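User: Hey, my collaborator sent me this sequence without any context and asked if I could get a structure. I don't really work with proteins. Can you help?
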Amino acid sequence: MRATIMTIGQAAIAAVDPATAVRETVSLDDNGIQIGSLRVANADARRVVVLGAGKASPRMAAALVDILGDRVEGGLVITKDGYASAAGQVKIVEAGHPVPDARGQAATRQVLEAARAAGKGDLVLCVISGGGSALTPCPPQGISLAELQDVTDQLLRSGATINQMNAIRKHLSEFHGGLLAAAAAPARVVGLLVSDVVGNPVDVIASGPASPDPTTYADALAALDAFDLRGAAPISIRERLEAGARGELSETPKPDDPLFARVSNLVIADNARAGLAAVAAAQSAGLHAQFLTSRVQGEAREIAKLVAGAAIDIARSGRPVRRPGCAIFGGETTVTVRGTGRGGRSQELAVAAAQALAGEPNTAVFALATDGTDGPTDACGGLIDWTTIDRASAAGGDCVSALAANDSYNYLKCCGDLIRLGPTGTNVNDLYMAFGW
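Assistant: No problem. I've predicted the 3D structure and written it out in structure-token form, which is a compact way to encode the shape of the chain:
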């Protein structure tokens, strides 16, 4: 069963390969470029430049070069360490994630310069995916990179959602919240997005560098206040957000801004696509399977009870699918960090699920980060079953202590349930799979 479960997970990741998604979306003929339902005539694609950021972006850029050939004049894409891959004439730069660093700041300035060099008759293709926010720090004058790193780290530890983090990032940036598209005006701008955000809001994916921003300075302050972080934030950041909320600073461009008349954004791969592929793979392996939702959010150890409960119900009573069966959930949980251990949201969910499955025969849960790196670790998650607690105890592991210390990585490692796939080249949130047989 464990081998079958791994095959299902790998099928889900393969289904959201960003290069494949680009090839299904973009084509070239003598009269122009077709991008989904959008037609870009040659007059608007005299020169094609590829810009972007994210874990899936290098593979997207490489696919565009394969399709468009020498129509692509060049470009620059920023990605996380370990995710770089060749993309022809498009330069790939690695930078820090999830905490931004100086490499990302320098590369972001170069992306903006390339965007500003585009003119009327040029096409700027923005390849955007999860991770793009942290990879493209571009703080305004008066805010240092160290101060941006500080508030990012505080938000990560607080359990802030991606929406809350991005409302803040957009208002501490000269790149996010539509400002990349503004830099490229009057060129034609098309964003190709691989979504790592629940519900696929294009303004939230990588903090929406080519999308109108519906959030405000007041929203950014509210996100800080939700975790009582206003007083702990660096003074320069607090003062900027408060000045913006008073109307003393220009807002990010909003949906009614005329610049977006020549900007389009298209989501080409998302969590639902991965979840449905997992269903197909499970059915091919002889399991009954159902993808229940792509909108799971909440504290990882609480969501673990829901996922584990589904596994128990399948094994005991054949609900919500008949046994042998698999119920699949997608989304993105959060972890409020209180300890000093190693881990990530999928690993923490797996450990909490193991606690719930103890003594429930023929049950398993696979918590999988589709990008291959869950939190600041080299693991993608954990594959646990009803024997995990006993096996970990025999190896000296203690579930309660591991959760208290946020040390899910070492707990799963000690019993052999830690899963490492390496960087997958894509990123569409997490999958949580409940099995019963």
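In plain terms: Residues 75 and 90 are 5 Å apart (CA to CA). You can pass these tokens on to your collaborator as they are.
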